[in-house]
């Protein structure tokens, strides 16, 4: 599969639009594995990395689930192409910085992505829409089992799977969910909730993982420990916490609409106005306004399909996607102009917010049979 074919259509997990995805956009499971009797990538010489790649890549491509997959050495991709894969959460920023001796094999629907010679020999991930950590794990575990028939992984009976970073030792599992939490942010509850999540041993990160900031009110919540617990135990605990955070978000949205409906309507209306009419907009501002537009769709100010529109725009207005769309390297000023043009074009048919969601008394309209525009 060619790169252009891979990115031509949105990934299955980017479809969005269900009630379950009101707060939880995606679930991701990642497994770290290393080859037995091979130096780990960070300590391997160039020829050793190449040998490991030559061993792993055919084995991954032969998996039934990876039929017609995109498979490429990173050294053969341009910097923009690699950054597009980062923006789609298909490879890590660290992997994109690597070149010779590293590769990626990505399933055609982008539900599976395998990084070869990243920090570990194999970083395998499965992504699903909404809160589906268990389903994602089952799918990736089956893939992992199939790979073990052709590849021998570094495993210790006491410690479990051996990994480059001690935090991944044991199961090698990193489970995470991407959450959209504008209600908690607007009600100033986000700090309290995230602090509680940290206290029980879970990590909270920004849009692109460790070391990145939260943009568009998007947060990643993941496990930190992988040693001494089964994969099922880790996932059950994470699903329970994410469900609780999601419920807090729903409650915050309802209370905002009850207590201060004019403020909610004002923020959603301003976001709509800027996005529909701006001719220059940077990435951060666009993401924050799209977050409010998505919130408006969830609350009934816009039709349900607006959620899917926002989710696709969240990806398509990223810097590398813009450059790929334009077919050339863009200056920051050019990106801001093209970004605004794309947003205006996509939102051209979107009508103004339906403020009948709120009554003159500031209460939420009880009839939710048709939450979209009348």
UniProtKB/TrEMBL annotation:
Start and end residues of each stretch annotated as Disordered: 344-374
Record keyword Oxidoreductase present: no
Binding site for ATP: 26-30, 89, 123, 174-178, 205-210
Cited Pfam families: ATP-gua_Ptrans
MF terms (GO), sorted A to Z: ATP binding; creatine kinase activity; protein arginine kinase activity
The protein's Enzyme Commission number: 2.7.14.1
Activity control summary: Appears to be allosterically activated by the binding of pArg-containing polypeptides to the pArg-binding pocket localized in the C-terminal domain of McsB.
GO-annotated cellular components: extracellular space
Biased composition (Basic and acidic residues): 357-366
Residue interval(s) of motif RDXXRA motif of the pArg binding pocket involved in allosteric regulation: 335-340
Domain Phosphagen kinase C-terminal: 23-252
Superkingdom of the source species: Bacteria
Record field: catalytic activity: L-arginyl-[protein] + ATP = N(omega)-phospho-L-arginyl-[protein] + ADP + H(+)
Keyword set, alphabetical order: Allosteric enzyme, ATP-binding, Kinase, Nucleotide-binding, Transferase
Signal peptide: none
One biological process term in Gene Ontology: phosphocreatine biosynthetic process
Cited PANTHER family: ARGININE KINASE 1-RELATED, ARGININE OR CREATINE KINASE
Similarity comment text for this entry: Belongs to the ATP:guanido phosphotransferase family.
Biological function: Catalyzes the specific phosphorylation of arginine residues in proteins.
Protein name: Protein-arginine kinase
């Amino acid at each position: 599969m060619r790169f252009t074919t891979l990115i031509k259509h949105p990934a299955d997990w980017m479809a969005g639009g269900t009630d379950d995805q009101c707060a939880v956009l995606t679930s991701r499971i990642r497994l770290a594995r290393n080859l037995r009797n091979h130096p780990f990538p960070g300590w391997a010489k160039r020829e050793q990395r190449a040998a490991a790649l030559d061993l792993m890549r055919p084995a991954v491509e032969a998996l039934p689930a990876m039929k017609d997959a995109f498979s490429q050495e990173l050294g053969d991709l341009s910097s923009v192409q690699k950054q597009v894969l980062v923006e789609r959460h298909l490879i890590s920023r660290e992997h994109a910085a690597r070149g010779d001796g590293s590769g990626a094999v990505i399933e055609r629907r982008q539900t599976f992505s395998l990084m070869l010679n990243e920090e570990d020999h194999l970083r395998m991930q499965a992504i699903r829409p909404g809160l589906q950590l268990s389903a994602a794990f089952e799918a990736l575990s089956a893939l992992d089992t199939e790979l073990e028939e052709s590849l021998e992984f570094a495993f210790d009976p006491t410690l479990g799977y051996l990994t480059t970073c001690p935090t991944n030792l044991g199961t090698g599992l990193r489970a995470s969910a991407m959450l959209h939490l504008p209600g908690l942010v607007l009600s100033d509850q986000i700090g309290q909730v995230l602090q509680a999540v940290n206290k029980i041993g879970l990590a909270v990160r920004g849009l692109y993982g460790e070391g990145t900031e939260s943009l568009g009110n998007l947060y990643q919540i993941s496990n930190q420990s992988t040693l001494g617990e089964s994969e099922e135990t880790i996932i059950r605990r994470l699903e329970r916490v994410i469900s609780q955070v999601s419920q807090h978000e729903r409650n915050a949205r309802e209370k905002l609409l009850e207590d201060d409906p004019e403020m909610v309507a004002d923020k959603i209306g301003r976001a709509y106005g800027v996005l529909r009419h701006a001719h220059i907009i940077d990435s951060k501002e666009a993401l924050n306004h799209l977050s409010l537009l998505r919130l408006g769709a969830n609350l009934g100010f816009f039709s349900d399909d607006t959620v899917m529109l926002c989710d696709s725009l969240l990806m398509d207005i990223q810097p590398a996607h813009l450059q790929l769309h334009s077919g050339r390297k863009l200056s920051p000023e050019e990106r801001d102009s093209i970004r605004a043009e794309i947003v205006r074009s996509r939102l051209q048919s979107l009508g103004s917010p339906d403020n009948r969601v709120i009554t003159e008394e500031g209460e939420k309209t009880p009839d939710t049979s048709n939450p979209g525009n009348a």
